[in-house]
Amino acid sequence: MISIDKVSKHYGSFQVLTDCTTQVRKGEVIVVCGPSGSGKSTLIKCVNGLEPFQSGTITVDGISVGDPKTNLSRLRSRVGMVFQHFELFPHMSITDNLTIAQVKVLGRSKEEATDKGLRLLDRVGLKAHAHKFPGQLSGGQQQRVAIARALAMDPICMLFDEPTSALDPEMINEVLDVMVELAQEGMTMMCVTHEMGFARKVASRVIFMDQGRIVEDNATDAFFGAPRSERARQFLAKILSH
Amino acid sequence: MSYQWNWGVFLTPAAAGDGSTYLGWMLSGLQVTVALSLSAWVMALALGSLIGVLRTVPNRWLSAIAAGYVELFRNIPLLVQLFIWYFVLPELLPVKLGTWFKQDLDPVTQQFLSAMVCLGFFTSARVCEQVRSGINALPQGQKNAGLALGFTLPQTYRHVLLPMAFRLVVPPLTSEFLNIFKNSAVCSTIGLLELAAQGRQLVDYTAQPYESFIAVTVFYLLINVVVMSLMRVVENRTRVPGYLGGK
Known about the structure:
heterodimer, A: alpha/beta, 6-stranded mixed β-sheet, 4-stranded antiparallel β-sheet, globular, B: mainly alpha, MetI-like fold, 10 helices, 75% helix
């Protein structure tokens, strides 16, 4: 589904990504973790072309992201993305947030889009908030709406860029619950996250990054049981010690 | 001081014998000021928004051209710009167009057009900077969120960035809207009989400078009160619930 092959990226002389290679197969859930500044957010943004990269190739469903001939908008409309800071559109009601791209990008009718949006809103447990505005919801609620908004486009896979990092601890679980459910339904997912409980529960593989490189790409049990790299061992020791 | 106050002067028939009172002169000046400022404002808002957007697009050439535009119109004094539009530019136009402007148009239309274009361009450079700062004040993630949903860049501006950017800059745009009325007084220098020019003309005819300029002041204040209330309505109507002091 997603294939990342020898991808490198630099800002001027600063190397952000070096020779990153990995795959996400259909139905897999991949967790990307690593210390801050390791390039994991940049990597996931490269997957739908929000960040350009200088060398290597990324293909999503067989379509090359870096190819200037690719219709990036169309490709992005098929790849759902959830951001650290939710990024709902503050001037639109929740319903409009859920429907605008369905109508403007996919050409669905207003009724069809609203129907679909409200069904997904119900699924993330927020049906009662349809008429509200993003600023009137809590962070966890906003993030669940953001997930519903991405799902409304019927994506072939979902990218999560630290979806719980900006949330109060109490609200993390309500978002993770939605993500776990999604994973168990067979959605292809690539998640940048530090939620190791989530990784253990649903990830097929864990990718560990450090200084712009993929240091370890391992099956979940193996990663937590006996990480191959010293750096990953140190990282796990630090974040799992409490 | 032995100044003879005479507020009745406004109701006396004007000495020019055009059947109007001096108050009529004032009101016709007010009309010109309002028409000139509003038409220049429409032009400034449209042009300024366009150039402001161009300043933020990820294309070096477009943003450089837009930046040049802003520096050009912002760094030359308004009065100099007005003289260039009115006295110099008609000479530089293609002969036919120049002749049409100078000979076929009546003088008032000439003055009005030059003044409108001048104020429009001058103010557009300032509007541009405000629109740009509004767009830049939005989190980068908003643009990414729009693009990630499959919007094209123009759609992202149209549906995601600009609606919020304009809301953010309503207060500075209000002061620009007020400025355009005040700046329009400069246009009396090319002979356009707007409010300030009528005030001065009144002094020449009646020798009642205090009354004239108090009246002019009151009219400008009135305009500004109306503009401010109008913009306050706009601000309240577009307020986003749960955001920026909205409920």
